From TrEMBL:
Stored PROSITE patterns: LRR, NACHT
Source organism phylogeny: Bacteria, Bacillati, Actinomycetota, Actinomycetes, Streptosporangiales
Superkingdom to which the source organism belongs: Bacteria
Calcium keyword on record: no
Record key words, sorted: ATP-binding, Leucine-rich repeat, Nucleotide-binding, Repeat
UniProt name for this protein: NACHT domain-containing protein
Organism expressing this protein natively: Actinomadura madurae
Pfam hit, one: NNH1
SUPFAM superfamilies, sorted: L domain-like, P-loop containing nucleoside triphosphate hydrolases
Length: 966
């Protein structure tokens, strides 16, 4: 190129460009070019696609609920649960002081004891678990109130409103649920709760504010983790049904805020229908049906039984042993425990106090401090606890802090009650630390002998008093709301401002404050307070009953009845006695023995509800005088009364109560005694006639203890573990005709039934592992047979003769033949329960029967209502899971009372059901959201139960007759 020069080079480049252009034009016209170009292009595109796939694989999967993907969910979930497990597993011991500058705490998961709740529910439906259904209740539908362990109710209730009085253990229970869920350590009935993600929401933190959105659920319980929480994580738990929302303290909000809570809960349930929710409240703030329209089941935390009290005291002393720096040598703890238990046995007033978990724990603490000098009432108990916390312990042991900052008890009380009053007046239970300092500064301005600054005084009270605390950084509250109410009452009494109490007497947030103010006030102020409330009784009929109950409740704390008001207060009491229901009984019981003087000696003139409530108020008051009344009630023949007396047995000496009360039942009266403790088992010999017994014990029982009644017992129901060797004792029960066996663990064998005298009714649950049913062969006169989950039962040939059987249930069985063989073997069946039985082939075999009850949930054979309609005596029908569409044939079933239509998605019209005169209960679920409730609007005696999250049309037309299943 250099040889041709610059001009030649330019010419060369021009010629080369032209040649290349010509060559390309020629090549692309050749037939071989297009295929080769396509191969090259596809090769490059394929490589590019591989590279894009690699990049996409590294990106998180995005969706509406996971805008940033879910790759970090597992790591964050683990970290969040670990945080809850670490931070919530502590229980502050109110009333206990140590020498270190730390608040006394114990491990909640170790110290927790299960409590009992009472529920109102319908008997008569064998649920899928069948754990609590009695054979005699198969066809019943009466309401009954039963007391069960709270864990059982939690296991069965997706939505639960848990009510309880102050100090009943509501908040502690929610914390236990949260940490147990965080660790996946639920057992027994609650095993299905493992895998839930708990969200503990304290409503006190939202007073006057809007309720939290899902993305804000962890803000106040795990503040330090909010910044790393993956977007949409809480929503994903809610949608997946893993979220467990624990809502604490409806009563800590005012009325308007409570309405917002209900709307908030309604929204959560509508948007996330699989979510589990537990809500707590004092009963004065939320009635049992407060959340019924939202589908909540309601339960009430009952007073602790003597067995529960003993367990709490033992747990308490065991827990504090490991705290270190005890107020007494650790080796002396057993002697303190024994001494306290002995005092409770002999002192009725202490035993009554100890039925409340908070007061029981305070008694334990005071027992360490005072030994034998324990107060007689809860006002004295609160005062003694504050004395010990604020003065006695530090001064007695010479703790340095008590000398470095000189605050006398009265000065500390004055400051604390000022803070308490501010909280109560503003309807709050916590406040910012800066505001607490400001309140203390205001108080110190009138206390010239205190030289310390407000921040110093606040830090001292936080560190040493044990009365206030800093639950989260920058927020201050009282260790228990009851303490706040006690100090508020004292502040108002000191000021003499009874007007504020009288004005707010009808408000549930002020109830406890008014009651304790009656105890704090001097005589003139007591007169003013009670007279003011009584004047409102006359002037405000709308609040009259609530105000009367409040006046009677004040009798608990009044040192003496105000002069001149005796007759008015007596009239209030007379208007409320006898109580009309159990809720009234609980309120009246707080007034103590004055109520007993008004109770009737005989129940014969009272309705069933009022009579039962009268028995209840007597045993709640307890003591020798109450026992006298219960002794008189023992001869009432009504079943409900005998059942309530059986409930009362837990709260008295088992032997004495059996001899003086239970033994007085009229001869031949129908009652079922429930034995819940070894003491009750051993006291049976004091009751002359016992024909029906239920055993429900937390520990395995020895059936040989029942030997003394072996010739009397006709019906025996066991709902607990049994010592294996003691089952042979049943062979001596010569008159036993009705036997129910619901063990805690599935038995491998039922051979013990072989030697029993011939039974008429038999119910055995949890037959999952039973292979040999030959032991049933000797029971040839059976009239009722129920086996649940007999998976390994091959066929009718393995069952006893069924000729006389009228009640037959083989729930979830797997027989190897069809329905025809079963009906041929049991031609006289009237109540037939065959839910979840895949072997049912043809329902035409039912034509020969005259049925009162027919349960065919999830029946594989076509269900034709035209065939069922000819059972004119039918009272209970379950065709859930069937393809039924037209309900018109059911209009001929004039005796039908209960109907299940769950998962019947093709039903379009409920009008035929309006013609059923005796239908009182309809269960719907997983039906069309366009199903109209209007045809049932005029059926006043019909109650409709919907599955959670089920939408229907015109549901409001049913009002309170519509509820959601729990």
């Amino acid at each position: 190129m250099r040889q041709v020069g610059e001009s030649g080079a330019q010419l060369y480049n021009v010629i080369l460009d032209e040649c290349c252009d010509c060559l390309v034009r020629i090549v692309i016209q050749l037939p071989q070019f297009a295929p080769r170009a396509s191969v090259e292009t596809l090769s490059r595109i394929s490589g590019l696609a591989d590279q894009v796939n690699v990049v996409l694989a590294r990106l998180p999967a995005r969706s509406v609920t996971a805008p940033e993907g879910t790759s970090s969910d597992r790591e964050f979930t683990q970290r969040y649960l670990e945080h809850l497990s670490d931070t919530l597993d502590t229980l502050e011991l109110f009333g206990v002081r140590f020498e270190r500058f730390t608040r006394p705490r114990i491990t909640l998961s170790v110290a927790y004891i299960g409590l009992s709740v009472s529920t109102e529910k319908k008997a008569g439906r064998v649920t899928e678990t069948l754990r609590g259904t009695r054979v005699s209740d198969w066809r019943g539908d009466q309401q009954f109130n039963s007391s069960v362990r709270v864990e059982s109710v939690l296991a069965e209730s997706r939505l639960l409103l848990l009510r309880g009085e102050a100090g009943a253990g509501k908040s502690t229970l929610l914390r236990w649920i949260a940490i147990t869920a965080a660790r996946g350590k639920f057992s027994g009935d609650m095993t299905s709760w493992n895998g839930c993600i708990p969200f503990l929401i304290k409503l006190r933190s939202f007073s006057g504010e809007r309720m939290p959105r899902p993305e804000e659920f962890i803000d106040r319980i795990a503040d330090n983790l909010t910044g790393i929480m993956p977007r949409g994580w809480v929503h994903r738990q809610l949608i997946a049904g893993k979220a467990l929302i624990l809502v604490d303290g409806v009563d800590e909000l005012v009325g308007q805020d409570r309405h917002a809570v209900r709307e908030w809960l309604h929204g959560l349930i509508s948007d996330f229908p699989q979510t589990r929710i537990v809500v707590t409240s004092r009963p004065v703030a939320a009635s049992a049906d407060w959340l019924r329209a939202e589908g909540f089941f309601s339960a009430f935390l009952e007073r602790m039984s003597p067995a529960d009290i003993r367990a709490l005291i033992q747990h308490w002393h065991s827990a504090v042993r490991h705290c270190g720096d005890l107020p007494c040598p650790p080796e002396r703890l057993p002697s303190y425990e024994t001494a306290l238990l002995a005092r409770l046995e002999s002192a009725v007033h202490l035993r009554t106090l100890a039925a409340n978990p908070l007061l029981a724990a305070m008694l334990c603490a005071l027992n360490l401090d005072r030994e034998t000098q324990l107060p007689r009432d809860r006002m004295g108990l609160y005062g003694a606890a504050l004395d010990m916390l604020l003065v006695t312990r530090d001064a007695k042991r010479g703790i340095p802090s008590s000398r470095s900052l000189s605050l006398e008890r009265a000065q500390q009380i004055r400051i604390l009650q000022y803070i308490a009053a501010h909280l109560s007046n503003s309807n709050r239970v916590e406040l910012p630390k800066a505001l607490a300092e400001q309140l203390i500064a205001d108080r110190l301005a009138a206390m010239p002998y205190i030289n310390q600054s407000a921040p110093e005084v606040l830090e001292y009270l936080l560190d040493r008093s044990g009365v206030i605390r800093e639950p989260v950084l920058g927020r201050v509250d009282f260790v228990h709301r009851t303490v706040q109410e006690y100090l508020t009452a004292k502040h108002i009494a000191d000021l003499g401002d009874m007007d504020i109490l009288i004005r707010n007497a009808h408000r549930d947030q002020w109830r406890e404050t008014v009651i304790m103010a009656a105890g704090h006030a001097n005589e003139p102020l007591r007169n003013e307070l009670i007279a003011g409330i009584l004047s409102r009784v006359e002037a405000e009929p709308r609040h009259a009953r609530r105000l009367k109950l409040l006046v009677v409740a004040c009798m608990e704390t009044l040192p003496a009845i105000p002069r001149g008001l005796e007759s008015s207060m007596s009239k209030c009491l007379a208007d409320l006695v006898p109580p009309r229901d159990l809720a009234s009984a609980r309120s009246l019981a707080t007034a103590g023995e004055p109520v007993l003087d008004r109770l009737p000696r005989s129940l014969s003139q009272l309705s069933d509800s009022s009579a039962r409530a009268t028995v209840s108020v007597a045993w709640m008051i307890n003591g020798p005088k109450a026992l006298e009344f219960l002794e008189g009630y023992g001869c009432d023949p009504r079943f409900n009364i005998q059942q309530e007396l059986d409930n009362a047995w837990d709260f008295f000496d088992p032997g004495v109560f059996a001899e003086r009360v239970l033994a007085r039942a009229p001869k031949g009266v129908t009652r079922s005694l429930t034995l819940r403790s070894p003491g009750q088992l051993h006291a049976l010999n004091k009751i002359p006639e016992v024909t029906e017994i239920s055993i429900s014990s937390d520990v395995p029982i020895d059936l040989s203890v029942l030997a003394s009644k072996a010739q009397q017992i006709r019906k025996l129901s066991i709902y607990s573990g049994v010592e294996a060797d003691s089952l042979s004792a049943l062979t001596t029960f010569a008159r036993l005709k009705d036997f129910t066996f619901v063990p805690r663990v599935s038995p491998n064998s039922i051979d013990f039934l072989r030697e029993l005298s011939p039974l008429e009714r038999l119910y055995v649950s949890q037959c999952d592992e039973v292979e040999d049913y030959s032991a049933l062969a000797s029971h040839k006169q059976l009239q009722g047979l129920l086996l649940y989950s007999p998976f390994k039962l091959a066929g009718v040939q393995d069952l006893p003769p069924l000729d006389h059987v009228q009640v037959l249930a083989l729930m979830s069985s797997r027989l190897q033949h069809g329905l025809g063989e079963l009906i041929a073997a049991a031609p006289n069946v009237r109540d037939l329960m065959l839910d979840n039985c895949p072997w049912i082939d043809d329902l035409n075999h039912l034509d020969s029967l005259s049925l009162r009850m027919l349960w065919l949930a999830n029946c594989p054979a076509p269900v034709k209502l035209e065939k069922i309609a000819h059972f004119s005596e039918l009272e209970s029908l379950d065709v859930s899971g069937s393809q039924v569409t037209d309900l018109t044939p059911l209009s001929d079933l004039k005796k039908l009372r209960i109907l299940w239509l769950k998962d019947c998605r093709n039903i379009v019209d409920l009008t035929p059901l309006a013609a059923l005169p005796k239908l009182t209960m309809l269960h719907l679920g997983e039906v069309s959201p366009t199903l109209d409730m209007a045809p049932l609007a005029n059926r006043r005696n019909l109650k409709v139960t919907l599955a959670p999250g089920q939408e229907v049309v015109n549901s409001r037309m049913l009002g309170r007759r519509l509820r959601f299943d729990h």
